[in-house]
# Entry
Amino acid sequence: MSQQVDWAGWLQRWDDQQAGYLPDREEQFGLMLDVVERLVGEPGRFVDLACGPGSISARAAKRFPQADIIGVDLDPFLQEIARQAVATERVRFAEANLRITGWDAVLGEDPVDAVCSATALHWLDPEDLEAVAQTLAQRIRPGGVFLNADTMRLGPDEVPRLDALAVALRDEIWAESHAQGVEDWQTWWEAAAAEPAFAELLAEREARFADRWRGREITLTDTIQSFRKAGFTEVAVLGQVADKHLFAAIR
Ligand SMILES: C[S@@+](CC[C@H](N)C(=O)[O-])C[C@H]1O[C@@H](n2cnc3c(N)ncnc32)[C@H](O)[C@@H]1O
# Structure
């Protein structure tokens, strides 16, 4: 299969598509790695959480050539792109479901220095996020860092007008990207579905996400509270556009 498929091309197409949803995605990734570097130096062990096809892993590998990088995700198709387009001796990818306790077994024994994630943890429900924060608190060494660039609602119950405003601003940003011709999520997945070589992996993906939870969306408050409760010593927002936040937590 790997001979016929342009894996790097699919990764690039993914990056282009995702940039429609996360304004300044490339800059955000750069900033995340800057923060890692400033807080922990060159990490020995770096985790790309819910890594998709490995976009952060690829950038982390360039920035931190000595780091051992592990990308974790449930999607077997996106993981295959990551394996084919990004994996090296120092960069590996593992399949795990963040909603199931014990997912962190794929990280091995040693503590990790930094965990980064983007546009992914909003797929979890607030209870899942709390559990993930607890797990990360056990896995990240003291002084290590967690960074997440993702949608975190301001809170329809807490600040209804500001929450609605942030969502409206977010929707305008998306609409503008797509009006300018950036491919959207659905079109990307339809294109993947049209590629016969991907059929098996996409069927497996479908099965794994059959019970994808769609309930209350994670808020910024959920995130801050989860990481404080888990024992992270400092938590803060380092950047925000509409409902997208760059959240940082030091263990
Ligand atoms: C929008 S993609 C973002 C991927 C990547 N972080 C990026 O920025 O390109 C969301 C990712 O979260 C992953 N994901 C969602 N729920 C998950 C779960 N329960 N366990 C592991 N990964 C999950 C999906 O498979 C998908 O790869």
